[in-house]
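Human: I hope this is not a bother. Would you mind checking the protein record under this note? Thank you for your patience.
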Amino acid sequence: MNSIEPLDLGGVVSKLTRNTPQPVKTEDEAGNALTRYRMWPSLLGQLQAALTPGMESGSGGSGSGRPAPLALNAFDLLRRIDETSTYQYWTFGGTDRLDATSIAKRIQFWAMKALASPESEKEATRMIGGWCKDIEALFNPQQRIELKGKCPECQLSHYKVEEDGELIRKPALTAVPHERGTFASCGHCGATWSGYQLHALADHVTRVG
């Protein structure tokens, strides 16, 4: 069975922050098959769009003026990405004002500097790759499977997140079947597991609970 190699740091940064051309199959006036390309927004762009006024009605909103759960979840995830990317931007020597530096630019700067150290590169790849998976899972919530047990990284079994104006207690660990392969992640600290790492996670949850 063919396996898909995980994306490297450049790959996850591109997926998260850069628009990419995607083929769209259509027909010309004579009915002949034709492939056109259009720019598809980055995952970060899609996340930010979920907070745009008017998205609520397309995300299960009631029309009552209350934010839809998707928008609230998107806000929480975007806040975490904003805070972490800002911290990493300053840590790696960024000097520009934040109001003149977008979240995407901060992430790209951090990733570029992280390449200088294998450990920094590994950590950046893990965190940014986790955000990519979290955003993909956000727009496909029916695929998320809740797992019982404590996260090996932060040692939490549950965390709280605001949904529809209320604080909801949720399991920290979830698994998401995906076309690139099933992965699991921690909603609190952002740690992710895929491939053979899922066996280690399952062993940890079985032993520790």
Q: What stands out?
A: The two ends are 32 Å apart (CA to CA). Strands lie at 20-27, 33-40, 145-146, 158-163, 166-171, 173-176, 183-186, 192-194. The first strand starts at residue 20 and ends at 27. Confidence is low (pLDDT under 50) at residues 53-68.
